[in-house]
Write a structure and sequence with these properties.
The chain is of the alpha/beta class. It folds into five domains: 111 residues, MutS, DNA mismatch repair protein, domain I (3-Layer(aba) Sandwich), CATH 3.40.1170; 130 residues, MutS, connector domain (Nucleotidyltransferase, domain 5); 247 residues, MutS, DNA mismatch repair protein, Chain A, domain 3, CATH 1.10.1420; 211 residues, Rossmann fold, CATH 3.40.50.300; 79 residues, no CATH class. The protein is built from 30 helices and 27 strands.
Length: 869
């Protein structure tokens, strides 16, 4: 080891010293025009990026792996590393190599992690990129959700179930928590998140609070309404500490912190968000509600729409405000199209101003801000003409920031390059020295011609010319015929056969200017652009408010647009406890139907007094699950402030939607389908309220038939007889025995999804009708799925025998034993062959003692014919 240490070069010594400060991070080390990686980092980088892995000092004690890429390709390669789950430390040269005779000073300028990134190629345009910070204390948790790319900073605190719901809804890219809480985190939230653990000392309440007070430059947190949220304050303070640790120190765009008001939003647990497929789906290529509802015109609007989807409102007034704006925009298509046109010009103002706050914005992004502010002016004028109060409020709050808009117009070229380093960013007339240097650097020929013309006239040498060489730079060349006219202050530098070459103090001065002009131009442009960004960053708050208002307007315009395209209607909202949907449709399924096929609509009526629970029976594939989901989605859409897919909808406010739909084994943690099902159902039953909507699909199917029926029956009874909460419930089941419940409980009603039998075929009518269903038609579904014909025929015979035995009062188990015994006795035949089954039945029915020879021959002939068919 000592020998290896001696052979360490100054560069590798510097690399190792920096690398040890960032454990767990992949270090991109700037060497000249390349970012290099060494050792295990090089192996990872080569594999993820598909670049060449080489070795340095091959065979020696200091042998090390090496992989690198050109520095200008960072925007291409960095996103790939971060998406692969790497924490990437970017180490840059902190001084010009020309100015030092020793090794260049280097340092990490940024640590990029999945949750701490604003790079356009890493963050998704239509989704937030949240960093979630958790603080555990006994049975309560604090959480903060911070998006560095937009400046949004949200906090909340509560039990594990509430925090789990927030994590499911906000889908953070990274979750940080204390190292000592790893076990609790995995128990509560599983392993589905990218996580990073911090040292315990940062989770001190005083340190976290001081961090927040210092960042926001305030004396207390009362102004943000979070001063009593001790756990959330710790989580938020740690999030800011983490940003500082990852070398993000220009954070003035994080200008506000807000609490998530639990009481203001409908409760959607993580099962419901998953089961209703609001934003994502476990099924590959499945369409989600977000896919259907999102026709927004800006990335800001798309992000806000997702938030509205997982946080529907539960107060009449704000819901009605949204619906009224949608109605107004729907009835004024010319205004809507004018507003949409302007919003498209705005672009992603929210992330743009964040980049300015981070001092990372490039020239074209600044020009985009100018364009966006022109659009803000137009939006302000259009909305001011509205008759709806909510739009007038938007108009009053929009701020076109005329000072900075005009400053950008005046100081930045109208079509600048993408990068500041490319030059020609600052407009002419902004800085006199810049204009002079540009004239020298880019108007050199004209300047030289002026000198040449002036000197030729002054000396009377018509053949005078100015040229340049690398030995002594710019010079004047005079032919021998005119050398007697050369002024005394010219200095001779070179004698040729036919001419002499001279330099002058003016040419020497110009040469110094022209050679240094481009570098000076770059320095001046960098300084002026940095000054501009600094001034723009003073307008972060009004521009962020503009972004929020435009995002809201965008979503409401989007609601009007999809209402018109998809034939949605305005829901009637009330404080009643009635859900009355007529002609309801599933918003996603209707979009995936084959061309020409129309969606079969259904009516659903639920209330607390007469029809609290509907038991829905009917065959598999008939549409029971779709009906449950569509009811949940219609209620959710209505409380988002969106029109709904129905002919008419009266929605009494719902405060919680619970779903138990579909099987979801958690075998990795040793839980069966049935255990998962019971856990989810228990969570529902323990959190019921008087305004809950409960959607239960096939409860109890994960266990034996009798256990399943018993559990499903008991659940229905429990919901009906709950002492404080008459939760409205749709209960889809294949247990027809549950139809008996309606005889004993007055608020339970039976419905079935109807089918039509034509011969041996079943046609699914997908229509909900009163009354229970007697058959499951499972064998018909198996036939449609392509099961072997012999198997289908045998299943039909077994079913027929079972039904006969049951009507005769025989127990199912006894019937099955008789069928199995019969099959065992005749195992000389292939009993799965329906032909042989018929032959068996023919033989069973023969009385050999009374059979005549002729009758025996006729039976043999009959059996032979059966074999030939």
């Amino acid at each position: 080891m000592a020998k290896a240490a001696k052979k360490e070069t100054p560069l590798m010594h510097q690399y190792n010293a920096i690398k040890v400060k960032y454990p767990g991070a992949l270090l991109l080390f700037r060497v000249g025009d390349f970012y290099e990686t060494f050792g295990s980092d090089a192996v990872k980088a080569a594999e993820i990026l598909g670049i060449v892995l080489t070795k340095r000092g091959s065979g020696s004690a200091s042998e090390t792996e090496l992989a690198g890429f050109p520095h200008h390709s960072l925007e291409t390669y960095l996103p790939k590393l971060v998406r692969a789950g790497q924490r990437v430390a970017i180490c840059d040269q902190l001084e010009d190599p020309k100015t030092t005779k020793t090794i260049v000073k280097r340092g990490v300028t940024e640590l990029v992690t999945p949750g701490v990134s604003y790079n356009d190629n890493i963050v998704q345009q239509k989704s937030n990129n949240y960093l979630a910070s958790l603080y555990f204390e006994k049975n309560q948790l604090g959480i903060s959700l911070l998006d560095i790319s937009t400046g949004e900073f949200l906090v909340a605190q509560g039990g594990a179930a509430y925090i789990d719901k927030l994590l499911q809804g906000f889908k953070p890219s990274e979750v940080i928590f204390s190292r000592k809480n790893k076990k609790e985190f995995l128990e509560c939230f599983g392993d589905r998140f990218y996580t990073y653990q911090l040292e315990d000392w940062v989770y001190s309440g005083d340190y976290a609070k001081e961090t927040l007070l210092k960042h926001f430059e305030v004396q207390s947190l009362k102004g943000f309404g979070i001063e009593r949220m001790g756990l959330a304050i710790v989580a938020a303070g740690v999030a800011l500490h983490y940003l500082n640790e990852t070398e993000h120190r220009h954070l003035q765009h994080i200008s506000n912190i807000s609490r998530i008001e639990e009481d203001g939003y409908m409760w959607l647990d993580r099962f419901t968000i998953r089961n209703l497929e609001l934003i994502g789906s476990s099924n590959e290529n499945a369409k989600t509600l977000s896919d259907v509802l999102d026709h927004t015109s800006s990335p800001m609007g798309a992000r806000l729409l997702k938030r509205w989807m997982v946080m529907p409102l539960k107060e009449i007034k704000p819901i009605q405000e949204r619906l009224d704006v949608v109605e107004y925009l729907l009835n004024d298509p010319s205004l809507s199209s004018a507003l949409i046109k302007e919003i498209k010009q705005v672009g992603d103002m929210e992330r743009l101003i964040s980049k300015i706050g981070l001092l990372k914005a490039q020239p074209r992004e600044v020009v985009q801000l100018k364009r966006a502010l022109y659009a803000v002016q137009q939006l302000k004028e259009w909305t001011s003409q509205s008759e709806v109060a909510a739009l007038q409020v938007i108009s009053e709050q929009l701020n076109p920031c005329l000072f900075i808009r005009d400053k950008i117009e005046k100081e930045v070229q109208s079509d600048p390059p993408v990068l500041l380093a490319k030059g020609n960013v600052i407009a002419d007339g902004v800085d006199a020295e810049l204009d002079r240097l540009r004239k020298i650097a880019f108007g050199g020929k004209d300047f030289l011609l002026e000198i040449q013309k002036r000197e030729a006239e002054a000396t009377g040498i018509p053949s005078l010319k100015i040229s340049f060489n690398n030995v002594f730079g710019y010079y004047l060349e005079v032919t021998n015929a005119h050398k007697d006219k050369v002024p005394a202050d010219w200095v001779r530098k070179q004698t040729l056969v036919n001419a002499e070459r001279y330099i002058t103090s003016e040419l020497k001065e110009y040469e110094e200017q022209i050679l240094g002009a481009e570098e000076k131009i770059q320095q001046i442009e960098n300084r002026l652009f940095a000054e501009l960004l600094s001034i723009l960053s003073e307008y972060i708050k009004p521009i962020q408010l503009n972004a929020q208002l435009i995002a809201k307007l965008d979503v409401l315009l989007n609601f009007a647009d999809i209402a018109k395209k998809n034939y949605y209607v305005k829901p009637m909202m009330s404080d009643s406890k009635v859900i009355d949907i007529k002609g309801g449709r599933h918003p996603v399924i209707e979009k995936t139907l084959p061309i020409g096929e129309s969606y079969i609509t259904n009516d659903v009526y639920l209330d607390s007094d007469s029809q609290q629970i509907i038991i829905i029976t009917g065959p598999n594939m008939a549409g029971k699950s779709a009906l449950l989901r569509q009811t949940g989605l219609i209620v959710l859409m209505a409380q988002m402030g969106c029109y709904v897919p129905a002919k008419d909808a009266h929605i009494g406010l719902v405060d919680k939607i619970f779903t138990r739909v579909g099987a979801s084994d958690n075998l990795s943690s040793g839980e069966s389908t049935f255990m998962v099902e019971m856990n989810e159902t228990a969570s529902i039953l323990n959190n019921l309220s008087d305004r809950s909507l409960v959607l239960l699909d096939e409860i109890g199917r994960g266990t034996s038939t009798y256990d399943g029926i018993s559990i499903a029956w008991a659940i229905a009874e429990f919901i009906h007889n709950h002492p404080t909460a008459r939760a409205k419930t749709l209960f889809a089941t294949h247990y027809h025995e549950l139809n008996e419940l309606s005889n004993s409980f007055n608020r339970i009603k039976n419905f079935n999804v109807s089918v039509k039998e034509v011969g041996n075929k079943v046609i699914f009518l997908r229509k909900l009708v009163p009354g229970g269903s007697e058959h499951s038609f499972g064998i018909h579904v198996a036939k449609m799925a392509g099961m072997p014909v012999k198997l289908i025929a045998r299943a039909g015979e077994i079913l027929k025998r079972l039904e006969q035995e049951r009507t005769g009062g025989e127990h199912i188990k006894d019937s099955m034993k008789k069928i199995q015994k019969q099959a065992y006795q005749l195992q000389m035949f292939s009993i799965d062959d329906p032909v042989l089954v018929k032959i068996r039945d023919v033989l069973n029915n023969l009385d050999v003692n009374t059979l005549t020879p002729v009758e025996a021959l006729m039976k043999l002939d009959e059996i032979q014919r059966l074999l030939k068919t």
